[in-house]
Amino acid sequence: QVSLVESGGGLVQAGESLRLSCAASGRPFSNYRVGWFRQAPGREREFVGRISKSGSDTYYADSVKGRFTISRDNAKNTVYLQMNSLKPEDTAIYFCAARETLTGAYESWGQGTQVTVSS
Fold first, then answer.
1. Is 9 in contact with 115 (CB distance < 8 Å)?
2. Helix, strand, coil percentages, rounded to 5, for the chain
3. Contacts of 10 (CB under 8 A, 6+ apart)
4. What value, to the nearest 5°, has the Cα angle with vertex 16 and ends 71 and 94?
5. Best CA proximity match to 5, nearest among 83, 95, 76
6. Burial of 13 (0-12, 13-18, 19+ CB in 10 A)
7. Which of 8, 24, 95, 97 is the right S-S partner for 106, CB 3.0 to 4.6 Å?
8. Residues in a beta bridge with 59
9. Cβ-proximal residues to 101 (8 Å cutoff; 6+ apart), any chain
């Protein structure tokens, strides 16, 4: 498994931007597909988006499509989540997760980083 650490969360106002990072260590990061998830208080964990091993393919939840962008730099063992036009409903703890397979469960999870968007 690979170890993941998220960073970059914080408090912003609605309409502003944040960029989260997911740094990996352990095994070669290019072997892993990476997903971003979030969980707001009292709500279930929600899928945000994912990126392929090479970074050529991405997929997003409808709730963030057009506002969020996932990218990766395998040389730096890091995946990014660029969040623009943030809304109060984006407030949550954001997690990155990694898996080697195309489908199935994510094998490794980070500890999460808090994003709070004020209105």
1. yes
2. 10, 50, 40
3. 18, 114, 115, 116
4. 50
5. 95
6. exposed
7. 97
8. 50
9. 33
